[in-house]
Specification:
Blueprint: E1 3-8, H1 14-25, E2 28-30, H2 32-42, H3 46-54, H4 59-77, H5 87-94, H6 113-127, E3 133-136, H7 140-143, E4 150-156, H8 159-170, H9 174-196, E5 209-212, H10 218-233
Parallel strand pairs: 1-3, 1-4, 2-3, 4-5
Length: 238
């Protein structure tokens, strides 16, 4: 069983190479499926997780999460007379609280950081123990960095090429695609910094090798990866 973990900059081509590579390998391709599994694990909708990954949480959203925790603590401690929330809130939250199913999270900012990353790690690690698989995104190459059956490959490209890829794939104008790339890059850096304390998620030490798709064509890149897969399986990669 071989796992290919692709990671890299927004629009660099991992989501173009990934499906083709999976087909050549006869492997499953996992992208949005990760979100579905995470959603099931943490009790959130896929849309909430998608919102969470598109951009970092705003100050207002962080405050809302803080406010929710205050309400929950008030319920647990019996602070029913809180002058800001009134006596009805704590009573509502504590009534048969332990017997109620956790509500489905429908907004990205409502998802607790710890529960989110636990769900991501659980889903990715669980899928990496199955059949041959190609994974893209969600920090999979970092989460699986200690597994010997995982080939970790970084995909990068020049900014103009990345913008053009997003514009073509998502039918956006160049201006819209530029804003999308910037926002998703910021969210990606926030994700790695917040959950893994990593400043540079594209550092070469996280990958077996990195491919620049602005300089290397798709077919040649896939050939490189297929050769590396053979070397990994034969124990000749190092």
């Amino acid at each position: 069983m071989t796992v290919i973990a692709l990671g890299g900059l927004t629009g660099a081509g991992a989501r173009t190479i990934g499906p083709v590579l999976a087909e050549r390998m006869g492997a499953d391709y996992v992208d949005r499926l990760i979100l579905t599994n995470v959603a099931r694990h943490v009790g959130a909708t896929v849309e909430a997780l998608h919102q969470r990954e598109e951009r970092p949480p705003t100050r207002g959203e962080r405050f809302t999460r803080f406010l929710q925790r205050v309400l929950e603590r008030s319920a647990v401690t019996g602070a029913g007379g809180d002058p800001y929330f009134g006596p009805g809130v704590a009573a509502f939250l504590t009534e048969e609280y332990e017997d109620l199913p956790e509500p489905t999270v429908t907004r990205g900012h409502e998802l607790e950081d710890e529960k989110y990353i636990e769900g991501v790690q659980h889903a990715i690690s669980d899928m990496a123990t199955d059949e041959n698989i190609v994974m893209v995104g969600r920090g999979c190459y970092y989460i699986l960095k200690d597994m010997p059956n995982v080939l970790r490959i970084g995909i990068e490209a020049h900014i103009d090429d990345r913008i053009a890829t997003i514009a073509r794939r998502e039918r956006l104008s160049i201006e819209e695609a530029t804003r999308t790339v910037v926002a998703r890059d910021e969210a990606r850096f926030y994700f790695f910094n917040r959950f893994f304390d990593i400043e540079d998620p594209d550092a070469p030490e996280f990958f077996h090798f990195v491919i620049n798709t602005s300089m290397v064509g798709e077919e040649y890149a896939i050939g490189m990866i297929m050769n590396a897969i053979d070397a990994l399986r034969e124990g000749k990669l190092q």
